[in-house]
TrEMBL record:
Transmembrane segments: none
Stated name of the protein: Large ribosomal subunit protein bL20
Keyword check for Ribosomal protein: yes
Region listing for Disordered, in residue ranges: 1-29
Recorded GO CC terms: ribonucleoprotein complex; ribosome
Family under the similarity heading: Belongs to the bacterial ribosomal protein bL20 family.
Amino acid sequence: MARVKRSVNARKKRRTTLDRASGYRGQRSRLYRKAKEQVTHSMVYNYKDRKKRKGNFRRLWIQRINAACRAEGMTYNRFMQGLRLAEVEVDRRMLAELAVSEPAAFASLVDTAKKALPEDVNAPAAK
């Protein structure tokens, strides 16, 4: 059987894994087997959390918009409905940014939404 010479590749692979695990605690940063397991889990968490980040930011934007709307005497739900009826197409990210940095501009959007809503809360919107 032919001799297989791959010690350089094996060392490089192990070194790469240990480098990736360099910030971990205890054996997970020093022993190859433990480090390999932790790096694999870390990559799984990384993938899942990149997906979760989008929902987390959306949730944060909605909370900020809701707080700013309530300061103006309106709920988030009615505000978004009013913007839809007024055909204002501004996404939640920009609305949250306006609510934090430009309260006057956000207040004008709230007024626009209030004007677009029907007077009777339970009445269907007139088109």
